[in-house]
Design goal:
Distance between the termini: 79 Å
CATH superfamily of the largest domain: Spore Coat Polysaccharide Biosynthesis Protein SpsA, Chain A
CATH architecture of the largest domain: Alpha-Beta Complex
């Protein structure tokens, strides 16, 4: 451990995947960087994860602490993530999902060195391998570090060529606090009235990129786990569509508009209208946003965009459907 290193918080919202979570914890403990605090919140798993955490606490060296919390009721990933963020005290932070794990033991040390080498750099992003595949999350593989202007990164890279896994991102938590990141997260009561699942939606990445540089590498530092019971595999997750990100992206749009970040405004407009449009009009979301006229316009145009895409996609399938029907009719008539 290098004397004077700043604390890094690794926050882990966990639920019911002890085999994966064991690998997650082990991979953090193998990092060369110190000091590290691990904050794990067990989201009321059917079988408590406390025994696993206690086992790992006994294996920790003096440079690592593990804090364990168990929720009395299931919060859902979005609010469990908010909970662990609220318990973090580090200068840097990593959002590490309970089914992901690190595979590069110098990732923390190297990333933090690159961030601290520039006074206006607040975040590093590396690459991630998808479990049981040769596929990487980022499509570039250069091993060196490269600095990118933050607002340009939001507009030109984020959500498209650079759509990182959370496990490969290190952020300056002190800077996020200065930006009052909590105002961009919704309370559970408000969300329940909207009848949709919520996504973190890269809010934290967008905030940091809007005020400073981003340092990137194609080096693989983590693995995204793909358990059969993972949240991203559920029907509810896919059915929520753009609605799970609408409020967050609109709040970011307003923030970028107020701060004069035109690149951020363009990126959020693109998200709201084209990348992640709402599938249906959600009156409760509009109500939450005080019937803001711009929000209404974004939602209505987004719904139109979504349905136009669906109509075009269906029309392209019509020749295939017609041909299939003709083959069936021919078989009945002539065979």
């Amino acid at each position: 451990m290098i004397e004077g290193n700043k604390l890094i918080s690794v926050v882990i919202p966990a639920f019911n995947q002890p085999d994966y979570t064991r690998k997650t914890l082990d991979s953090v403990m193998l990092q060369t960087y110190r000091p590290i605090e691990i904050i794990l919140s067990d989201d009321n798993s059917p079988e408590s994860l406390k025994a696993l955490v206690d086992e790992k606490i006994a294996e920790c060296d003096a440079g690592i602490t593990i804090k364990y919390f168990r929720q009395k009721v299931n919060l859902n990933y979005y609010w469990n993530l908010q909970f662990v963020l609220g318990k973090a005290s580090g200068h840097f932070i990593v959002l590490l999902d309970h089914d992901d794990w690190l595979v590069d033991c110098t990732f923390f040390a190297d990333s933090i060195r690159e961030i601290e080498s520039r006074p206006n750099c607040f975040m590093s992003i590396a690459n991630t391998l998808v479990e049981n595949t040769p596929e990487t999350i980022l499509k570039f593989h250069y091993p060196n570090w490269h600095y990118v202007d933050g607002p340009a990164f939001i507009k030109n890279y984020l959500f498209s060529t650079v759509h990182p896994s959370r496990s490969a991102v290190i952020m300056r938590f002190d800077q996020l606090k200065k930006l009052n990141y909590k105002r961009f997260f919704l309370e559970k009561e408000s969300a329940s009235r909207m009848h949709t699942m919520l996504d973190e939606a890269f809010v934290l990445i967008c905030l940091l990129a809007s005020v400073g540089d981003v340092v990137l590498t194609g080096r693989v530092v983590s693995v995204r786990g793909m358990p059969l019971a993972g949240l991203s595999r559920t029907a509810l997750w896919h059915e929520s569509g753009g609605e799970k990100m609408f409020v967050q992206h609109f709040l970011l749009y307003q923030y970028f508009r107020g701060s004069g970040c035109s690149d951020g405004m363009q990126a959020m407009s693109h998200n709201l209208l084209l990348r992640y449009p709402c599938q249906n009009i959600n009156v409760e979301m509009i109500k939450f946003l005080d019937f803001n006229r711009t929000a209404i316009l974004f939602m209505v145009l987004g719904v139109l965009s979504f349905n136009c895409k669906r109509i075009i996609a269906f029309s392209m399938q019509i020749p295939v459907i017609v041909r299939s029907l003709m083959v069936r009719v021919a078989r009945k008539l002539f065979l």
